[in-house]
Please model this.
Amino acid sequence: MSQPYALFDRQRVKRHRNRAAEYFAANDFLLREMSSRMADRLPDIKRTFPSVLDLGAHNGLLADYLPEESGIELLVQADLSEEMIAAAPGLRVVADEEFLPFAAHSFDLVVSVGSLHWVNDLPGALAQINRVVKPGGLFLAMLPGGETLKELRQSLEQAELHISGGMSPRISPFVDVRDAGSLLQRAGFEMPVTDSEILTISYDNPLKLLQDMRGMGESNALLTSMKGFTRRPVLFSALEYYQKHFSDADARMTATFEIVTMTAWKPEAPSDAGR
Model:
């Protein structure tokens, strides 16, 4: 069903991931970095999580990093793409983050790495996640923040202004770390903590950046974007602008990725309060 507030074509998101699935392991550097950073945070939380949902699991790469001390006995891996999740080890399910097929109070921990930025109704998705977390359970997510791909965004904008005299949306909007805490509270979580880190990757050619994004299934899925490929004059103008304005001392092009981390707890059940 169409939604009046929809930003993204969820079927395009699914198609992009299905297309990327075969070669995803060769292009998953960003998601592996995010997974590693998420796993590093879990030992600091002094409790165990017997049942875990990895939401938007892609091919299950997070499982490679989850620490043994977290006490995980059941790991359910869910993704929108049937082609992507088919490669995940263990228990897996095709599921849409916007329509979770799990019973209330099913998991001690819900994690999500690099997936929730494609959700149309993020407050609604967070509320559904809150529903499936057990009382006293934890939600932990990492997703791209507002500074992500700022160089590419500016290059495409300048190229389209120069070639076409206007702009069309080509990179999706990302969550602002300043808004993330209030979104968690609105969804019914408590003790929200949000932070962001900047990761800078260098390329010898910005075209490789575009190839990496496609290889991760991260191509543009905005409903308002132009369908089809970017016109060659616009693309070449954007690449030229990128090389001119965003090169480092070694003539390599830089790409910024802001990683926003969202952490929050579901309140204890009333009967458990004060335990």
Observations:
- The domain at 10-269 is CATH 3.40.50.150 (Rossmann fold).
- Helices lie at 10-20, 29-41, 82-85, 122-132, 150-163, 177-186, 206-215, 232-245.
